[in-house]
Specification:
The complex is a heterodimer of chains A (168) and B (100).
Chain A: H1 3-24, H2 28-48, H3 52-77, H4 91-112, E1 119-120, H5 130-139, H6 142-163
Chain B: E1 2-3, H1 4-24, H2 28-53, H3 57-87
Classes of the chains: A mainly alpha (168), B mainly alpha (100).
Chain lengths: 168, 100
């Protein structure tokens, strides 16, 4: 057991526990906070995988902007706790059954079929640095990058149109 | 050295938890969070394989996935606010106006 493997397993346990906490929390606010913890541990994974730019984007975009938006809406609507309803009572057992099938399937593919092999090499300094990502983004991926900005503009206009109250 | 299988397995577990969240939970906000969790699990695999094969394209793709999910959250939350305004509830079981 080397240090990298121990770090990986500790972080993996934190990430999975946070995801399970999100799934089983009664209150939506707790779910959101558990998800922030999960995003934080995934950001540390990105740093271990030599992707500091993606890690910082993860912290600022996901854990920062998106989750703050979620918490705002949860508290604005005041719907932390919803009363349980009895519509579709068979859905929960069926969902757990399908989840177990998916789990067994992925376990079979990964550990018996060996679908993904290879080792994650030791970190190198230059790979995945913000400089390298920026260079790739503004040379080979310039057109998709510009299309992304149009997409964000459309999303912004759409959100404003949907959220604004109609005047009579 | 961490074998890449471990990263894929972790991502698969996170993805399954997200899928279960979509299927089990009745609060549309939590369903949205589960979708974010699934997108995040896919991103993790992208970055892991980027490192294994030493190609930067995976990280660029993760950047685009983040942008699309940010756009999706902005529009989705606006939709949820609009639904709450008309129905005064966001319980997913009560959104059955289109039922015949």
């Amino acid at each position: 057991m080397n240090t990298q493997l121990i770090t990986f397993f500790i972080l993996a346990i934190i990430a999975i526990a946070a995801a399970l906490g999100m799934l089983f929390s009664r209150s939506a606010v707790y779910s959101a906070l558990f998800l922030v913890l999960n995003f934080g541990s995934v950001a540390v994974f990105y740093i271990l995988l030599n992707a500091p730019f993606i890690a910082m984007a993860q912290v600022s975009v996901y854990a920062g902007a998106i989750m703050v938006l979620f918490l705002f809406v949860i508290m604005l609507l005041g719907t932390e706790l919803l009363p349980p309803t009895n519509a579709l009572p068979w859905q929960r057992p069926l969902a757990i059954f399908l989840g177990v099938i998916l789990f067994v399937e992925s376990g079979y593919l990964l550990f018996i079929h060996n679908a993904a092999t290879g080792d994650v090499p030791q970190p190198i300094q230059a790979f995945g640095s913000p400089q390298a990502v920026g260079q790739a983004l503004f040379s080979s991926y310039l057109l998709p990058f510009e299309v992304t900005s149009v997409l964000l503009l459309i999303a912004m206009v759409g959100a404003i149109v949907l959220a604004v109250k109609e005047r009579k | 050295m961490v074998p890449v299988t471990d990263y894929v397995a972790l991502s698969a577990i996170l993805f399954i938890i997200g899928a279960l969240g979509v299927l089990i939970r009745r609060n549309p906000l939590v369903i949205f969070m589960s979708i974010e969790l699934m997108l995040n699990a896919a991103n993790l695999v992208f970055v892991a394989f980027t490192r294994v094969y030493n190609m930067l394209a995976g990280q660029i793709f993760v950047f685009f996935v983040m942008t699309v999910s940010a756009a999706e959250v902005a529009v989705g939350l606006a939709l949820i606010v609009t639904i709450f305004r008309t129905k005064h509830s966001i319980n997913i079981d009560e959104m059955n106006s289109l039922k015949g």
